[in-house]
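Hi support team,

I'm filing this because I wasn't sure whether my run with KG4 finished correctly. The job status page said complete, but I'd like someone to confirm that the output block is well-formed before I use it downstream. Pasting the exact inputs I used:
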Amino acid sequence: MSGPVLGVETSCDETGVAVYDVARGLIAHTLYSQVKMHADYGGVVPELASRDHVRKLLPLIRETLRKADMSTRDLGGVAYTSGPGLVGALLVGAACARSLAWALEVPAIGVHHMEGHLLAPMLEADPPQPPFVALLVSGGHSMLIEVTGIGCYRLLGDTLDDAAGEAFDKTAKLMGLPYPGGPALAKLAETGAAARFKFSRPMTDRPGLDFSFSGLKTQVLLAYRAHADEANAKADIARGFEEAIVETLAIKCRRALAQTGTRRLVIAGGVGANKRLRAQLADAGEREGFRVYFPRLEFCTDNGAMIALAGALRLQAGLRDDAAIKVAPRWDLETLAAV
Ligand code: KG4
Ligand code: ZN
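And here is everything the job wrote out:
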């Protein structure tokens, strides 16, 4: 396969489209977020998500090709998120992308959403080369992964309950913050004092690389009930919560680097957009002699560029999917084919 690859992301509440070329890099990308639509319900409503992808996907593909100054005939392949994610939302992207590739007689490939996230730093200048450790922190996942090549992923640690983004979202909700909670809570934390509320750093007092964030919610709820009327309590609690998550993630990242003997750390997924997490890990890296790679903020959260990139690398290596429209709402990252 040669030529630019169209990437389509529809696994949750963002419709993302991009054109990526292995030789030229990222050529164009567009994103439509459904956040406003789901905000009234306090979370993603799967059926509404699927219907909105139906409405937005074709216009976004047209817009992306226009931005790239291309027509469909210039495409060398098509990549789409085939899992994990919401089954209806995935099916919209898979059906559209797979059919387009069929009509254009170009190869198609289904991409693992989390592989997209973990390769997103490769969209930037001076990309990380394997081996590296990746911290994948999104709404559905908190994982530490040893990456020894594209498609060669070994799970070092996982969450036993809530994912990091889920912990941000649920904690924000119980503090009465608007959906989506993560960015709202992080913004509130900027005006909070660090020293006032000290929450636990779960599972850092024992060996291992797994996470558990669900207990933090209860700690926050109790503090919130006891101090809600006091001056600046909400912001101070938000700050204390953010410090607890960020420090816990940082401790486990250092451990994973020590365990694997790697000096490169990739941070990806929606929580990777958190400014305190970025600053704390960048500082730790400078002090302790490891290098930290982040995608730019807009490529931390869901987007089409990371799917186009991951798909282009797979298509270039000769991997292809057959003509069936298939999605995998649950899909283990360790089972991917090596590139
Ligand atoms: O990767 P993503 O866009 O979607 C999934 O694949 O899940 O991640 C979304 C998650 C949400 O839980 C959101 O609250 C969180 O990332 N998030 C943040 C920030 N921006 C997004 N969490 C903390 N601080 C942020 N600045
Ligand atoms: Zn995601």
